[in-house]
Amino acid sequence: MQNLEAKLEVGAPVGDRVDQLSEVWRITCVGIDNFIAEHSVDLHAHRSQSGQTLAVAALQRLLEAVELYDPDPVWEALDPLLEKHDDRFLIDVKQAVQGFDFEQAADILKTELQVRGWAVQS
Tens of pLDDT along 43-82? Predict the structure, then answer.
């Protein structure tokens, strides 16, 4: 860009400046596109590989069970979901509950519900 600015000040032919500016803009656009591609977040990365959609109501029931800080109701809600779905976040919830980290399990579920468009009350 500085080289182009220097040529603009010196008085290079207009056609040359337009071509250079177009090339700089093209390179900038490619750089922006590459940055977006490298840093974009797939909001559906945690979706089930089985292709089945996990009902929001089931996630809400699981969240309610987790918020009781009692593993028994959690297993009653979680086990059937794990049998039908292979979602990564369900495995993360299971691991959190196994470690008695109910707050982490609740955070995982709240995040998943928010990704699915449901407002979660704290």
Answer: 444 444 444 467 888 889 999 999 999 999 999 999 999 8
End-to-end C-alpha distance for the chain, whole angstroms: 50
| Percentages (nearest 5) of helix, strand, coil residues in the chain | 70, 0, 30
> What's the pTM?
0.55
- Tokens encoding 86: 């292979």
* Rounded Cα distance, 48 and 65, in Å: 22
CA distance 24 to 2: 11
Note whether 77 and 65 are within 8 A (CB): yes
